[in-house]
Amino acid sequence: MRMYSSSSRKQQQQPPQPASPPPPKDKYERFEQWLRDNGAKFELLELREYDAAKNAPREEEEVGEEKKEPTTTEESEMRGVHARTHIPPNTVCVTIPRRCLITVEMGQATPIGQAILDSDLDLDAPKHIFLMIYLLWDRKINGSSSFFHPYYEILPKTLRNMPIFWTPDELANLEGSYLLTQIADRNEAIAEDFHAICQIAPLAQICTLEEFKWARMETKWTFDEDRQAFTITTLQHIPGGAQVYDSYGQKCNHRFLLNYGFAVEDNREIDGFCPDEVPLELYVSPDDPLFPQKLDFWTRGEVGSSSSSTQHALHLPSPSSGGQPSSSIHSKNQQYHRSTSAPMSSSTTAPSNGSSAVAAANGSPVIKRIRICVSNNENTRLLFSLLRALVCNREELRAVTSPVSSDASVSRALFGITDPSRTVTASSGTTTTYYRTCRDIRHPINLRNERASMRLLLEVIGRQLSRYPTTLAQDVADLMDERALPRFSNKRHAKIQVRGEKEVLHHFARWARTSLDVLDVIEAELKEEAGVEVQMTSAGRTITEERPGFELVIRRMEEEDSGSLHHTILRYCADVLGSLRREEYKLRRRRVHSKPTFVSKSSGSSSGSFF
User: Fold this and answer.
1) pTM of the predicted protein model
2) How many CA atoms lie within 13 A of 560 on its CB side?
3) What phi and psi values does residue 555 have, to the nearest 5 degrees?
4) Letter string b/e over residues 415-440, b meaning 16 or more CB atoms within 10 A of that residue's CB
5) What is the pLDDT of the chain when averaged over all its residues?
6) Where does the Rubisco LSMT substrate-binding domain start and stop, copy by copy (predicted)?
7) E strands along 50-175, which residues?
8) In CA terms, which of 6, 186, 410, 591 is 20 to 30 Å from 527?
């Protein structure tokens, strides 16, 4: 009895059985808990994965408690960060301590990293390489016991949005774009790095080439030394539930797409500036009567250089390639390489010896590739300088390339070309000569040359536009159809990219056409002052009304509706062509009063004058 009673009391005194253990957390919850356990702070934010089928954020109202693991058989690679509640400006919404960061030094400390440091490998992305090496090495060696395993779990298994992983059908949507060449270059550069490292270290034991490419697409963030943490601070009010965006900086869509796997639909800054670019290719035509002289001017200080101050590339012929380009030297974050039988390509700035002889010997023109955007920036000025050099006639070329101390200074004076150089006296007592490069013609030479430059620009743009299978109008219409081009799809991003390129091309085409119209007006004014009768014609009929002068034309352009003519075009016509007009008036009046004995011998491009 007692025993029974005692046993009964013992049973009654035993603690209750523990409840069933909670279901295992999904990978995102494990990742967030790992961050919190290690001192990270992000209470104001939450991570959401988007529906792979719909390519859009899931609505919590529709699914109840948010389910972060994908429910489809094909895992989504679309995810975003959202505000849990309203966040005011200047709020530090994310703090990630140093211990949760993978650094270059960690990759260098691995056996493979040490082997790379001990070698003299010239890698395409040396800093990225060490981040990649650590990630791949740690995942392979430590597996699920790795400190960073919760982070590795949430990384996408593939990166199908990155152009280097696109299928041929997806790449076909970029037809006509130079981005196709850059994608091929990126694939080639990654493969070269992989095989080079395999020669000195057992890289193949921890990853395949495809896994190496996957790791190459990961990025690093700036570390705040004062806080000893990676932080993100809000710049404006963010309402609860809204997606939180981090700035990738002011970049062209081709960089967004190539490096991050997306293109921005409306890639404009707050001030309206659009950084989208398109490369134009210029070269001296082998059919040009002045080909040797222009090629010499074209390649001064360019071919053979290994440094650059602009984002262009230099392509040199390989001894084993029969003079065809097979390697490239790049600057900053870009590498451009053509593996076709096209002309050599050059756009660096430092001088070199014997470069023009190399170009002339193999018979291939030297391409200069300039990236331009809708702006009057340094690259736009460089473009116009190169165009002026390409269309020079004999006397113009002599004037802009001749030594300062030679008789050709007369040519310079007659063209109104000022020389910013300083002469240097050598030990022999003779004065060394100053050689301008084709990059330095930052002001119009004369009316004839500027007109020819604008015509050449139209020709170059027309050649580029002809490479695309669709027109700009068709691209704009296609992007209106989100069923045919779903949001976030590779096909849509490709369409956004080529549309942006065409918008830039159409801008410069309008620039050239408007400039030609204004140059017509200036030339007509000059002829009228010289007593030459000028008639306006339209459709073969003579127009009797008074021809509008330059000032009136510019005033009408300024009074046009806002946005109808880009301000860069207006300022070029009003300021640059206006200055050219004044100089031409002065020059012609000087000729009349001084009666110069110098006679133009231009190659049939003008009669009686340089125009």
Assistant:
1) 0.76
2) 13
3) -65, -40
4) bbbeeeeeeeeeeeeeeeeebbbbbb
5) 77
6) 368-505
7) 79-83, 92-97
8) 410
Q: State both tokens at 399.
A: 């004037």
Residue position matching structure tokens 């974050």: 333
Q: What is the pLDDT of residues 265-281, one digit of tens each?
A: 999 988 889 999 999 99
For CA atoms 68, 74, 75, 80, give the dihedral sign.
Answer: negative
- Residues 69 and 47 sit within 8 Å (Cβ to Cβ): no
Cα three-residue angle 378-382-387, rounded to 5 degrees: 150
105 to each of 100, 218, 490, 545, how far by Cα in Å?
A: 14, 16, 35, 76
Residue 464 corresponds to which tokens in the numbers above?
């580029």
In the numeric block, the tokens 């200036």 are attached to: 522
Q: 77 pLDDT band (50/70/90 cuts)?
A: low
Would you put residue 127 in left (φ > 0), alpha (ψ -120 to 50) or beta?
alpha
Residues whose CB falls within 8 Å of the CB of residue 235, separated by 6 or more in sequence, listed in order: 89, 90
Q: Which one, of 515, 369, 504, 526, lies nearest residue 449 by Cα?
A: 515
User: Sheet holding 366-372: strands in order across?
Assistant: 278-282, 366-372, 344-345
Which contacts of 140-149 are long-range, i.e. CB under 8 A and separated by 24 or more positions?
A: 140/205, 140/206, 140/207, 141/206, 148/102
CA–CA dist 158, 366 (Å, integer):
40
For 470, the 3-state DSSP assignment is coil
281 in Cβ contact with 273 (< 8 Å): no
| DSSP assignment letter at 537 | E
d(CA 382, CA 405): 26
Q: Rounded to 5 degrees, what are φ and ψ at 19?
A: -70, 165
Taking Cα atoms as reference points, which of 42, 98, 80, 90 lies closest to residue 233? 90
Encoded amino acid at 118, one letter:
D
User: Could you tell me the two tokens for 311?
Assistant: 């984002």
- Would you tell me how many other CB atoms lie within 10 Å of the CB of residue 539? 5
Contacts (Cβ under 8 Å, ≥6 apart) of 231: 92, 94, 95, 96, 224
Neighbour-count burial for 39-67, b at 16+ CB within 10 Å, e otherwise: ebbbebbbbbbbbbeeeebbeeeeeeeee
pLDDT in tens, 99-147: 999 999 999 999 999 999 999 888 988 888 999 999 999 999 999 999 9
Note whether 414 and 587 are within 8 A (CB).
Answer: yes
* Cα distance between residue 18 and residue 38, in whole Å: 28
- Reported residue count of the chain is 611
**Token digits of residue 21:** 């253990």
Distance between CA atoms of residues 461 and 505, nearest Å? 6
Residue 237's CB: how many other CB atoms inside 10 A?
12
Quote the pLDDT of residue 561. 60
Token pair listed for 177: 């774009």
